[in-house]
């Protein structure tokens, strides 16, 4: 059973019915789901959660649908990896990677938010489901729409990586490539949603979609044995994920599933698209839009829809923010693969690179626990690292060729 009561403006607290609404008509603030926490406290105990299937719906009382979940029954519940080798490299004992690069079925954190939006789209009577995407969201919207038999439109900037475009196209939606930035695509989709009455996961269904992002934080706390980490580092693009991580941590305490100090939440952006980090530094309450220029295309959003909430969450948690250059992003992608065997895309490289900078600066002390959220998979953007890697050794089939190769390598090593 869901404990959803309705929607409420995050700013002026005006109540709204749980329809396809996302901005307050009084103050233009964003709308968010409201729950009956007394009901949640009764229905959702550690025992009842642990007895449920390992998917994002194990926290369903805190997700905004009315009936049964319709998709995402294999999504979420991704590994929380204790990163011993990476931790040793950085001098941090308790370091974890929350690995959404293996989220089912499209290998990014978007497989948490889309099942919630898609289920709600059907509950609200929509038959066409779409999104404005920097790549991963399109992949997830296309996949879940395919499973549900929904008509699907994925709008993207034309300049996206081929792997990201293909990952949507394969599931058979209409893929529409716009000559412009993500922010142009988003503006167009707002108009299309209004004109045609279609559901857009991250626009008119944003109040529902965003709630799915909380599940990454619910899982982290459960996987730590119902304990908060001291620090968490999250990427920021449109600003969906980071504020919902903060909300999820607060809700767990509110409904009595855990206690203790709330984690410090740190924001990671690419140096070529860092409106939120700029605002953290200048003291602004709303990010000033920028024009993105970074290899981390999935997080290249110059005008984040939820930028204000990101700033509030980071500041309210005692967290911080930092930016990573393209070089630092690529180095972090390599380091994560060489130490932990996890291959992430540049968004994940950004998050890890920022975590490393904050550790080196002492903002994240080395004796405190840290979770780094890795939100996308490196196989979709393999071209960005391809020319950094050693080429395979090419040999014939005879053992003596391999022996000669090994001998030449050890000779080289002794010269060095
Ligand atoms: C891999 C990846 N990580 C993180 C994000 C962060 O997105 P947001 O801040 O909009 O939640 C995105 C979004 O587009 C993404 O594709
Ligand atoms: Zn309002």
Q: Which characteristics define this entry?
A:
single chain; alpha/beta; 4-stranded parallel β-sheet; 41% helix; binds pyridoxal-5'-phosphate; binds zinc ion
How would you characterize the overall build of this protein?
- With 416 residues, this protein is α/β, with parallel strands linked by helices.
- It folds into 2 domains: 4-73 and 108-209, Rossmann fold, CATH 3.40.50; 80-106 and 210-386, Rossmann fold (3-Layer(aba) Sandwich), CATH 3.40.50.
- Helices cover 41% and strands 15% of the residues.
- Zinc ion (ZN) binds at residues 9, 11-12, 14, 24, 26-27, 29.
Secondary structure elements and pairings:
Elements: E1 4-9, E2 15-16, E3 31-35, H1 37-43, H2 46-50, E4 80-82, H3 84-90, E5 95-99, H4 110-123, E6 128-132, H5 136-148, E7 151-157, H6 162-169, E8 174-178, H7 182-196, E9 199-200, H8 206-212, H9 214-223, E10 231-235, H10 241-254, E11 264-270, H11 275-282, H12 307-317, E12 321-324, H13 326-340, H14 346-360, E13 370-374, H15 383-386, H16 399-415
Parallel strand pairs: 5-13, 6-7, 6-9, 7-8, 10-11, 10-13, 11-12
Antiparallel strand pairs: 1-2, 1-3, 4-5
Bound molecules: pyridoxal-5'-phosphate (PLP) and zinc ion.
């Amino acid at each position: 059973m869901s404990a959803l009561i309705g929607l409420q403006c995050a700013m002026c607290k005006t109540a709204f019915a749980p329809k396809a609404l996302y901005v307050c008509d009084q103050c233009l603030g964003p709308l968010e789901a409201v729950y009956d926490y007394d009901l949640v406290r009764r229905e959702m105990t550690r025992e009842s959660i642990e007895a449920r299937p390992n998917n994002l719906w194990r926290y369903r009382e805190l997700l905004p649908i009315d009936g049964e979940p319709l998709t995402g029954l294999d999504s979420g519940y991704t590994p929380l990896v204790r990163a011993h080798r990476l931790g040793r490299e950085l001098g941090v004992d308790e370091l974890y990677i929350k690995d959404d690069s293996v989220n089912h079925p499209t290998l990014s954190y978007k497989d948490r938010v889309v099942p919630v939006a898609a289920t709600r789209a059907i509950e609200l009577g929509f038959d066409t489901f779409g999104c404005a995407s920097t790549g991963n969201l399109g992949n997830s919207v296309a996949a879940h729409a395919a499973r549900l038999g929904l008509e699907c439109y994925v709008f993207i900037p034309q300049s996206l990586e081929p792997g990201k475009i293909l990952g949507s196209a394969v599931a058979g939606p209409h893929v529409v490539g716009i000559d412009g930035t993500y922010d142009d695509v988003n503006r167009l989709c707002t108009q299309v949603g209004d004109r045609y009455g279609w559901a857009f996961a991250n626009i008119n269904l944003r109040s529902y979609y965003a709630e799915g992002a909380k599940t990454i934080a619910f899982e982290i706390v459960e996987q730590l044995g119902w304990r908060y980490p001291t620090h968490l580092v999250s990427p920021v693009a449109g600003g969906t994920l980071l504020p919902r991580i903060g909300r999820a941590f607060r809700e767990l305490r509110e409904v009595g599933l855990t206690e203790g100090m709330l984690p410090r939440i740190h924001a990671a952006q690419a140096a070529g698209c860092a409106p939120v980090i700029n605002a953290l530094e200048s003291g602004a309450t709303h990010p000033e839009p920028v024009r993105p220029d970074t290899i981390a295309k999935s997080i290249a959003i110059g005008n984040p829809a939820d930028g204000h909430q990101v700033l509030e969450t980071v500041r309210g948690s005692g967290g911080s923010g930092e930016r990573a250059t393209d070089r630092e992003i690529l180095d972090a992608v390599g380091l994560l693969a060489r130490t932990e065997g996890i291959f992430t895309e540049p968004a994940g490289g950004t998050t890890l690179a920022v975590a490393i900078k904050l550790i080196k600066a002492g903002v994240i002390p080395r004796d405190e626990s840290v979770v780094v959220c890795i939100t996308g998979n490196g196989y979709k953007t393999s071209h960005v690292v391809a020319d950094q890697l050693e080429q395979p050794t090419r040999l014939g089939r005879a053992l003596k060729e391999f022996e000669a190769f090994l001998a030449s390598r050890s000779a080289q090593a002794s010269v060095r």
